[in-house]
Structures are given as C-alpha cells and as structure tokens.
Amino acid sequence: MKQIVMVLAIAGVFAAGAAQAQSGADVVKAKCATCHEMDKKKVGPAFKDVAAKFKGDKSAESKLTEKLKEGKGHMKVAASDAELKAALQYVLSAK
Ligand code: HEC
C-alpha cells in the first residue's frame, strides 16, 4: 500500500513538472487559439500586433498578466500563473 502511495506521489510531481515546463506556444495553442492567431485578427487581435503594440514596454508582461488573470479589460483566462507567464512571453516575443 505504501508503495502505491509513493508511486502516485512521484507521478504527481512529474505531472506538475511537466505542466510547468509547458512552452508558451503550447499554452497559446491550448488556451488562447480560439480567439487569437499569431498573425491574423480573430476574435482578439493578432499576437504579432500585440507584440508590436507593447514593444519596448518593460512592464507589458506584468500588466497583461494582471489583465488576463483578474479579467480586467480581457475576459478572465483559466490558466495558471506559470502558464500565463509562458504564454505572454511567447506572445510578446512574436515578430
Ligand atoms: C474568448 C476569446 C479570447 C480568449 C480565449 C483569449 N483572448 Fe485575448 N483577447 C480577446 C479579445 C476580444 C481581445 C481584444 C479586447 C481586449 O483587450 O479585451 C483580446 C486581447 C488580448 C491582448 C491584448 C491586450 C491589450 O491590452 O492590448 C492580449 C495580450 C491577449 N488578448 C492575450 C491572450 C492570451 C495570452 C490568451 C490565452 C491565455 C488569450 N488572450 C485568450 C479574446 C480572447
């Protein structure tokens, strides 16, 4: 019994690690692509345009994280902090 618990615990740690290591591109595909495309306006603006808009704005990442997390001026996005960070870094680095 103890062994089973150990195995489950280890599997859990691996699963959490995998979720954290998810790339921004994966998060965008899974959570944002219904409304956003990289280079075309869809429901929301093209991420390339977003990157252009925030170019040189060092606080863009934190501002946008807030916006998406709290649902301020953007619908609340169901994603963890780590996922949002990865997604926004990916979006803001779009060219
Ligand atoms: C249900 C549709 C929908 C989903 C899902 C969605 N967005 Fe948006 N997004 C919009 C719309 C509409 C806008 C334009 C109006 C606004 O800012 O709310 C927008 C705007 C944005 C902007 C620009 C904000 C600004 O201040 O110029 C960013 C950045 C953004 N979205 C990122 C994301 C990311 C990252 C995800 C996925 C984690 C995501 N969005 C998921 C609809 C969506």
Which assembly state applies to the chains in this document? single chain
> What's the number of extended β-strand segments?
0
Order of helices and strands: HHHHH
State the major sheet.
Answer: none
The average pLDDT value, as a whole number, equals: 86
CATH fold call: Cytochrome Bc1 Complex, Chain D, domain 2
Unreliable runs, pLDDT <50, ≥5 residues?
none
Give the C-level CATH assignment. Answer: Mainly Alpha
| Radius of gyration, in angstroms, nearest whole number | 16 Å
Going by CATH, the architecture would be Orthogonal Bundle
Q: What small molecules does the structure contain?
A: heme C
Based on Cα principal axes, name the global outline. globular
**How many separate domains?**
1
Beta-strand residue fraction: under 5%
- Give the helix/strand class: mainly alpha
DSSP helix fraction: 55-70%
Fourth CATH level, the homologous superfamily:
Cytochrome c-like domain
Distance between the termini: 53 Å
What's the total helix number?
5
Write the layout of secondary structure elements.
Blueprint (H helix, E strand, L loop, with lengths): L1 H19 L3 H9 L14 H7 L6 H11 L10 H12 L3
Helix pairs in contact: 2-5, 4-5
The structure holds heme C (HEC).
Describe the structure.
This protein has 95 residues and is an all-alpha fold. It has a single domain, classed as Cytochrome Bc1 Complex, Chain D, domain 2. Helix content is 61%, strand content 0%. It contains five helices and no strands. It has helices at residues 2-20, 24-32, 47-53, 60-70, 81-92. The site of heme C has 20 residues, from α2, α3, α4 and α5.
